[in-house]
Design brief:
The protein is an alpha/beta fold. It is 31% helix and 21% strand. It has one domain: Alpha-Beta Barrel (TIM Barrel). Strand 2, helix 2 and strand 3 form a beta-alpha-beta unit. The longest helix has 12 residues. One of its GO terms (molecular function) is phosphoribosylanthranilate isomerase activity.
């Protein structure tokens, strides 16, 4: 089985970006949701994108964004994909894909099998589905809380679209997650942090090594 592709999300500093590049992850995520401790402004995104160059896929993470925010972020971050982490309907995803000419990754929050089935509605509207743990109703953030869901919900999954797994992944459990789900892509954020929003270069290296072990 080929190694899963790796996305390290919520990168906000040059040194942690360098760690992601050194660990040879396939994607880096820039968070454009201001309430998040991983948020980057347009100037920071532009500097990080210039540093990353074309050696890694740059994914912008958004929560129910308006078009003006997307336009600014796509240009500043030189984005290769748009990840939508809010309540975006299939019609909205399809419209943004058409408008910006970029692949759309739609996050599906999961707590049960019915949530997994919701992904089917996006088969003509998104380019990749990212299954993440559903956050509690009172949570202020839609992700990045280190929560995981029951991976057996994805066992034997047959998807019309490429897909990935997120939610509480770390170097300690990512191999088990891949073996349980067959995930072709894994995405981590809090799992490579020493504190919320503070990425740890050694944890980034360890996570990527564990995926490839």
């Amino acid at each position: 089985m080929a190694n899963a592709r790796i996305k390290i999300c919520g990168i906000s500093t040059p040194d942690t970006l360098d760690a992601v590049l050194a660990a040879r992850a396939e994607y880096v995520g820039f968070n454009f949701f201001p309430p998040s401790p991983r948020h980057v402004d347009m100037a920071a995104a532009a500097a990080l994108a210039a540093r990353a160059g074309s050696t890694i896929g740059k994914v912008g993470v958004f929560v129910d964004p308006d078009d003006s925010l997307l336009r600014e972020a796509v240009a500043a971050g030189r984005l290769d994909a748009i990840q939508l982490h809010g309540e975006e309907a299939p019609e909205r995803c399809a419209a943004l894909r058409s408008r910006f000419g970029l692949p759309v990754w739609k996050v599906i929050p999961v707590s049960n099998a019915a949530d997994v089935a919701r992904a089917d509605a996006y088969r003509a509207a998104a380019d990749l589905i990212l299954f993440d743990a559903k956050t509690p109703k009172d949570a202020t953030l839609p992700g990045g809380l280190g929560l995981r869901f029951d991976w057996s919900l994805l066992a034997g999954l047959r998807m019309a679209l490429p897909w990935g797994l997120a939610g509480g992944l770390s170097a300690a459990n990512v191999r088990d997650a891949i073996e349980a789900t067959g995930a072709p892509l894994v995405d981590t954020s809090s799992g490579v942090e020493s504190a919320p929003g503070i990425k740890d270069s050694d944890k980034i290296a360890g996570f990527c090594a564990a995926v490839r072990a």
